[in-house]
Write a structure and sequence with these properties.
Keywords: Amino-acid biosynthesis, Arginine biosynthesis, ATP-binding, Cytoplasm, Ligase, Nucleotide-binding. Residues 174-391 form the Arginosuccinate synthase C-terminal domain. Its EC number is 6.3.4.5. Pathway: Amino-acid biosynthesis; L-arginine biosynthesis; L-arginine from L-ornithine and carbamoyl phosphate: step 2/3. This protein is of the alpha/beta class. It folds into three domains: 2-162, Rossmann fold; 175-292 and 334-354, Alpha-Beta Complex (Argininosuccinate synthetase, chain A, domain 2); 366-399. It is 40% helix and 19% strand. The chain is built from 13 helices and 14 strands. A five-stranded parallel beta sheet has the order 3-2-1-4-5, with helices on both faces. A five-stranded antiparallel beta sheet has the order 10-9-8-13-14. Strands 6-7-12-11 form a four-stranded antiparallel beta sheet, with no helix packed on it. Strand 1 (3-7), helix 1 and strand 2 form a beta-alpha-beta unit.
């Protein structure tokens, strides 16, 4: 009997995959694996649901602490946002889930891993590249690329036909991905970029108009680029991110509606809720402005773009990503300090920061009188800095070039 390890969430797509695999791969044993990266209540019924749907076993692997410590914190240290906006909440979780799938497959002696990503999406690439990097001998099954189900409506009908309970309806047909960092919404009426999201779309965050009427001030402490305390309270990684989520969500922080360029070549529209991650990344970026010199900060901004593309494209387990991690970590040696943030109606604003490694000198920057900076020195600097411009202008004048 062949064993197939299925990346299982309990959602619509993976729920219908179990009976489909049993129908199309005769005598196959389907082993469901749910990587718990902070889906919340979604995992409470996953075990029984998987078995009722036809799985022989169901592993629920607690990945939350590892996810925050080894994946989310790296993301925040990198300052990576895909296309300058998206905090990569789905992208950064897929390598860890893939790692768990491979570990279960090796334990069970399974030759196949199956996922529920569509043939139009990015996740198929992320899952499969990670699996290839970790165990090239495992074969992939991707039902959405081969079966007769052509839409989420078809999948809903298939589920009803096979008596599979689902939380998706044709009235609210959104494809959602949730973890402790974010919640994404795609599909349905969002497929038309002209449509404003429905009022009750967000399930984590308050909308800015319904957010708290009073501003809240939050102090976030970092050590070597990693958040370690909020308002003076030291916390472990998972607890701190969850705490940041609760604070930021009530102020409408981190709601993003964007049209992005998928790896497979098309544009897609999604609404993302990333409250705590947005708060922490904004605070971290502010602290770097105090502790990094101009050239390093500038170069790191270019690295962030490449890092975001690697994560989005599923290239986590690659030599380049590992090399960039080394560079990023080297920039974080002095990224220690406290940042005070003001949260109000969707706005997340830095209002003060301190660091023992601050490169800011009030004595140098002051508009008042000082004894350190000789302003007359600027003339010689400008003459040398502008020398190439002067030479170029002289050449043009000599040759009559305007």
């Amino acid at each position: 009997m062949e064993k197939i390890v299925l990346a299982y969430s309990g959602g619509l797509d993976t729920s219908v995959i179990i009976p489909w695999l049993k129908e199309n791969y005769k005598n196959a044993e389907v082993i469901a694996v749910c990587g718990d990266v902070g889906q919340g209540d979604e995992t409470s019924e996953v075990y029984e649901k998987a078995l009722k749907s036809g799985a022989s076993k169901c592993y629920i692997v607690d990945l939350k602490e590892e996810f925050v410590e080894n994946y989310v914190w790296k993301l925040i240290k990198s300052s990576a946002k895909y296309e300058g906006k998206y905090l990569l909440g789905t992208s950064v979780a897929r390598p860890l889930i893939s790692k768990a799938l491979v570990e279960v497959a090796e334990k069970e002696g399974a030759k196949y891993i199956c996922h529920g990503a569509t043939g139009k999406g990015n996740d198929q690439v992320r899952f499969e590249l990670a699996i290839k990097a970790l165990n090239p001998d495992i074969k992939i099954i991707a039902p959405w690329r081969v079966w007769d189900i052509k839409s989420r409506e078809d999948a809903i009908d298939y589920a009803k036909k096979h008596n599979i309970e689902i939380g998706v309806t044709k009235k609210r047909p959104y494809s959602m991905d949730r973890n402790v960092l974010h919640l994404s919404h795609e599909g349905g009426d969002l497929e038309n970029p002209a449509n404003e999201p429905i009022k009750d779309l967000c399930l984590i965050s308050q909308t800015p108009e319904n957010a708290a009427e009073t501003p809240e001030y939050v102090e976030i402490e970092f050590e070597k680029g990693v958040a370690v305390a909020i308002n003076g309270k030291k916390m472990k990684a998972l607890e701190l991110l969850e705490y940041a989520n609760n604070i930021a969500a009530k102020h409408g922080i981190g709601i993003l509606d964007m049209v992005e360029n998928r790896l497979v070549g098309m544009k897609s529209r999604g609404v993302y809720e990333t409250p705590g991650g947005t708060l922490l990344m904004e605070a971290h970026t502010c602290l770097e402005s105090l502790t990094l010199d101009r050239d390093t900060l500038s170069f790191k901004s270019h690295v962030a773009i490449k890092y975001s593309e690697l994560l989005y494209d599923g290239l986590w387990f690659t030599p380049l990503k590992e090399a960039l991690d080394e560079f990023i970590d080297s920039t974080q040696k002095t990224c220690t300090g406290i940042v005070k943030m003001k949260l109000y109606k969707g706005n997340c604003i830095s209002v003060g920061m301190t660091s023992p490694y601050s490169l800011y000198s009030e004595d140098l920057a002051t508009f008042g009188e000082d004894d350190i900076y000789n302003q007359a020195d600027a003339e010689g600097f400008i003459n040398l800095f502008g020398l190439p411009l002067k030479v170029n202008s002289m050449m043009k004048k000599k040759n009559g070039i305007k």
